[in-house]
Amino acid sequence: MTQQHPELSQEQEYILFAYECLEASRVGALKIRDLTSSGPGGTFQARLERNVFDENLVHRLEQLELGNAALVFGRIDRVVEDSDQVENFHIGRLAVADENREPVVVDWRAPVAEPFYRATGRDHMGLLRRRHFVVEGPKLLALEDELFGEGHLGVGQDDGLGGDDPRQGLRGYSTLLTALGRNRTGQLGDIVATIQSEQDEIIRSPQSGVLVVQGGPGTGKTVVALHRAAYLLYTHRFPLEDQGVLVIGPNRVFLRYIERVLPSLGEAGVSQVILADLVPDVRFGGRESSNVARVKGAKKIAKVIDKAISDRERPILEDVVLPVGVGFARLTVAESVHIVKAARRRYHRHNQARKYVENEVFESMAATVRSGADAEDVREALQGTTEMRAVFERMWPLLTPAQLLHDLFGSKALLKLAGSGILPESDYVSLYRERSSSIDDVRWTTADAALLDEARFLLGPRPRKGGKIDDKDEIRTYGHIVIDEVQDLTPMQLRMVTRRSLSGSMTVVGDIAQATGPLAPNEWKDVLEHLPSRKAPRIVGLSVGYRIPSQIMELADKVMHAATPGLRAPRSVRDGDESPLILSAPSQDSLLAQVVERAQVLVNRPEAGRVAIICPDDMVDEVSTALDVANLAHGRAQAAGLDQNLSIVPATLAKGLELDDVIVMEPTAIVADDAQGLRLLYVTLTRSTRSLTVVHHMPLPDAML
């Protein structure tokens, strides 16, 4: 790569012209929007069409707001089919046209742009040249050309690299290294300019079915999944935009970290959530042991919840006799048994059957009134009485998911009734927790989200006045779902996600070697058995590590092979400038002192980027206090994400993040604190793009020696 490329100034002029066209499009869209927002007049159809048109314009305007992202990042030259003419296309973040509607920039997702990512020396896909731009916004810094055809090496041919060298076959290698060498910003950036062939194949793969992407640390699996979501929305805009795309992340720190990727690709309407966000009307923040989380995550708990609902569908204990007019109405135990059984047969969802139970009870009671009262007379006379409310509360109470589980977990008797024969006694007893005085005081745990969702599905929405069901009370489905760090989801959580899939279309990404959940899988079939199976799943792998220098991967691989002996580690494409630094502290106090000293060195380096101290979860306060004493500004990842130059990251929240420099504290404590401790340590050791420091007082785990 050289800044003296003979066509540098020419390409710079073209890029500036593209920005002018983009601004003209934005101004034009604003003018049209002003014309369509003149007032509420006209027919209903006209107003509806105007609103739809306005929504499309708003989406277009969102696309046109690039921020600091580069508009144009490459160009391809190819021979026009059946002619000797050469045509070229500039590839960019979104499509831009000039005033004559002639294309100036081609959207990276368009079919014509595919050779920019896929062409190799063996299959140049009609290309003569592929040009990579190194840009900062509209400023062109450098060019890199790859030439194809006879007499040119191209990509993927014998370039002197060994067959096992991970650099072989990479496109725009110098451009890629430039991008990888930039400091982190605390937010995940898109890779639209540097997508490699194996990544592009995944991004452009067919929508249908479940696609599993196995990728080790630094292979880009997260950005590949997000780019795939953007590609599918571009390719299947209708109906996918209406059906919705859902992205599920492992925690809020991670969501904050990835939140700008899709908007930078022109897709601002995608829902990005953690599982708890999908459960309405409750508050989270509770804690529980890993053993309880394991019990709640196993598939058998669904049967316990189903049984707990059935246990609330009961006949009365003794006949009920109540006055109606000048006579009496009676509901016998035998008749209540019949009504409950009939309701169970007729309805699959509990709350849906309540109206039927009420009608049948009043019909039955009306038949016992000698004065000839009908069911409506009995309903009018008795419905609001304390006695009848007690009857329905006994026979078929209307329940919310929170009410059901609050009652269940707060009663050892109900737990035994629901869990006996399904779970071992020790498991269902472990679910007991002291009942709160008010359901509003309950702080539900992460594992509770899937159980509340299961109850919501089985109970169904509570009927509103007039017996109507509000659509927003139903569980929403999506046309495509992306799950990141899927290896950490329990069977119940996977069941929760599957419930939201409209057609079984999913992209799920993860790494078995990084599985640290309460029911960590050992192979992908353990995950796939709980996901949609309408079409055979596809499992693809990312083999090249782009983010992590080879020196760091060498240390991390030792831990990975000890934690998951059968898995293959990704191959790093680059060497770092520093080998991992391991510092031994003679005492706990000196441990903190060494961490602070090393952090000061890293944040004060001329090339300082984002620095993180990854520590055992229970050491966050200690580390923060030590940094305060040293007047070292910092943030806590739980509260501020990675917005600060120096952040403290609990080990359990490190997954999926990337930083320039990382300090890992007390590896042995990280291993001891988690059921999948070696896998969690592997996660912490693979977060850095530049330097890794390990500071310890306790002896290092054998896997690191």
From TrEMBL:
SUPFAM superfamilies: P-loop containing nucleoside triphosphate hydrolases. InterPro entries: DNA_helicase_UvrD/REP, P-loop_NTPase, UvrD-like_ATP-bd. The lineage of its organism: unclassified sequences, metagenomes, ecological metagenomes. Residues 194-549 form the UvrD-like helicase ATP-binding domain. This is Unannotated protein. One of its GO terms (molecular function) is ATP binding. GO terms for biological process: recombinational repair. GO terms for cellular component: cytosol. It comes from freshwater metagenome. PANTHER family: DNA 3'-5' HELICASE, UVRD / RECB / PCRA DNA HELICASE FAMILY MEMBER.
